[in-house]
Amino acid sequence: MGVGVACGPANLVVIDIDAHPAPPPARNRLLPGIDIAEDIDVSAMTTGFHTLAVLAALRDQPSPADDTTTLRVRTPSGGLHVWYRRPDFRNWQCSSGSSTTRALAWQVDVRADGGYIIAPGTTTDAGTYTPLGTVRTPAPLPAWLAQERFWLSFRAE
């Protein structure tokens, strides 16, 4: 049996980074709505860790995957859930990393209002959701990610 947390009522925005290696989709689907310069080699972007790192680099920010100031949870499949507190009481939409228009990045889902996330320490048939490091509470959502989320709410599915 597993435990899930409803993100909206808990005032959470969780970045769900997938680690399912796959050939990357078309360049325009890696970071929907954001142009990736032609001189950037996208052939090695095979997971959400890669696409999120590129988004962070384009914004001159550290990747949320490396954010040791907030709760981070390794998933049984090798992915990562990065937990943040919602910065205000607006509704923050969920998004899927497979969306062609309203995604933060390919293979990166966002769990927020209307979504849920598996609680740290929960064991399912797939394995255990293991907290990383010593931080056990969500930090505030970084301003640059809040800005990305703000613009995502205007992109039509």
UniProtKB/TrEMBL annotation:
Pfam families for the chain: Prim-Pol
Protein name as it appears in the record: DNA primase/polymerase bifunctional N-terminal domain-containing protein
Domain of life: Bacteria
All residue ranges annotated as the DNA primase/polymerase bifunctional N-terminal domain in the record: 2-144
